[in-house]
């Protein structure tokens, strides 16, 4: 008896839902030409050759008070490829990623390990973006930190211009404390990206002002290189979570010379760097 009662209630509910849905379906048909709404954001693993990447899509809409990367609902997302330093995903790296995601920029992160900083991995990531309808292959940026920044510059400088299909061509490159030296300056002459940001600390022994100025000057004028120096900041300011607050740690030299550099994680400098990155990408993506 109870089962029959529940069945009748279910049947009535089905009829009621049909009546309610009829006008909604008609409205949906009338709006079929409008952009489709965005699915919820989330992360997934992308196979990239012998390695992999982590792709995270933004939320449906940026939270109140956050800027958008000039994208309409239903359109593909602009995307940033993030190559970390040797020590991988620190709290600072997460802070950069969160800032971009909050403002409508998808994120493709490389895994930890040597394979994450190779030309092959970056090429596989650019090919994956070009083949993913959710991502805008015309608005792609590459962000690198330390050894990851160095690898990004060397890899992009080695790519032909224009890049062969089906690879997405980055329009922007952000280099955070890459280890400015003559090797990078020479490679930078072959860069073919629309914009370049070079960000380093004023007191960074691996990124001296003169060497970084020479690197910025070697970048082709068409890339509109912008060099920014964080006052009173040393190497690896965003290595948050790797040492207790106020303590220093030793990080590998990004030039690969085998030395170690003393770093003082700085939350305030990390927030300033995140603002620089966001403003740079929004400009590069044409907001």
What do you see in this structure?
- The protein is an alpha/beta fold and 287 residues long.
- It has a single domain, classed as Rossmann fold (3-Layer(aba) Sandwich), CATH 3.40.50.
- The N and C termini lie far apart (63 Å).
- It is 35% helix and 21% strand.
- The strands form 2 sheets. An 8-stranded mixed β-sheet has the order 1-2-4-3-5-6-7-8, sandwiched between helices. Strands 9-10 form a two-stranded antiparallel sheet.
- Helix 6 (209-218) links the parallel strand 7 (195-201) and strand 8 (226-230).
Characteristic terms for this protein:
287 residues, alpha/beta, Rossmann fold, eight-stranded mixed beta sheet, two-stranded antiparallel sheet, 7 helices, 10 strands, globular, disordered N terminus
Summarize the structure.
The chain is of the alpha/beta class.
Uncertain segments are 1-40
Q: Looking at the structure, what is the overall shape? A: globular
| SSE pattern | HEEEHEHEHEHEHEEEH
Distance between the termini: 63 Å
Helix content: 25-40%
The whole-angstrom Rg is 23 Å
Architecture per CATH nomenclature, i.e. the level-2 architecture? 3-Layer(aba) Sandwich
Count of DSSP E strands?
10
SSE order and pairing:
Layout: H1 2-30, E1 43-48, E2 51-56, E3 77-83, H2 91-102, E4 106-109, H3 119-130, E5 135-145, H4 147-158, E6 172-176, H5 182-188, E7 195-201, H6 209-218, E8 226-230, E9 249-252, E10 260-263, H7 267-284
Parallel strand pairs: 3-4, 3-5, 5-6, 6-7, 7-8
Antiparallel strand pairs: 1-2, 2-4, 9-10
Helix pairs in contact: 2-7, 3-4, 5-6
């Amino acid at each position: 008896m109870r089962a029959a009662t529940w069945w009748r209630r279910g049947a009535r509910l089905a009829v009621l839902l049909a009546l309610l849905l009829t006008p909604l379906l008609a409205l949906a048909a009338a709006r079929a030409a409008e952009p489709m709404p965005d699915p919820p954001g989330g992360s997934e693993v992308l196979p990239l050759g012998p390695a992999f990447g982590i792709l995270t899509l933004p939320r449906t809409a940026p939270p109140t008070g956050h800027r958008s990367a000039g994208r309409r609902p239903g359109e593909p997302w602009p995307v940033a490829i993030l190559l970390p330093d040797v020590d991988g995903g620190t709290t600072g790296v997460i802070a950069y990623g969160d800032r971009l995601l909050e403002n409508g920029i998808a994120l493709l992160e490389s895994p930890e390990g040597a394979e994450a900083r190779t030309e092959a991995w970056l090429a596989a990531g650019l090919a994956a973006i070009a083949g993913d309808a959710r991502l805008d292959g015309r608005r792609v940026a590459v962000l690198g930190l330390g050894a990851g920044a160095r690898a990004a510059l060397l890899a992009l400088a080695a790519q032909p211009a224009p890049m062969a299909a089906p690879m997405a061509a980055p329009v922007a490159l952000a280099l955070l404390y890459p280890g400015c030296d003559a090797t990078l300056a020479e490679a930078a002459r072959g860069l073919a990206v629309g914009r370049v940001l070079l960000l380093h600390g004023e007191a960074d022994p691996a990124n001296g002002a003169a060497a970084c100025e020479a690197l910025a000057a070697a970048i082709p004028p068409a890339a509109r290189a912008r060099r920014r120096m964080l006052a009173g900041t040393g190497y690896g300011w965003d290595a948050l979570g790797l040492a207790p607050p106020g303590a220093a740690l030793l990080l590998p030299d990004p030039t690969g010379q085998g030395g170690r550099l003393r770093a003082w994680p700085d939350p305030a400098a990390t927030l300033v760097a995140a603002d620089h990155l966001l403003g740079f990408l929004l400009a590069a993506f044409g907001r």
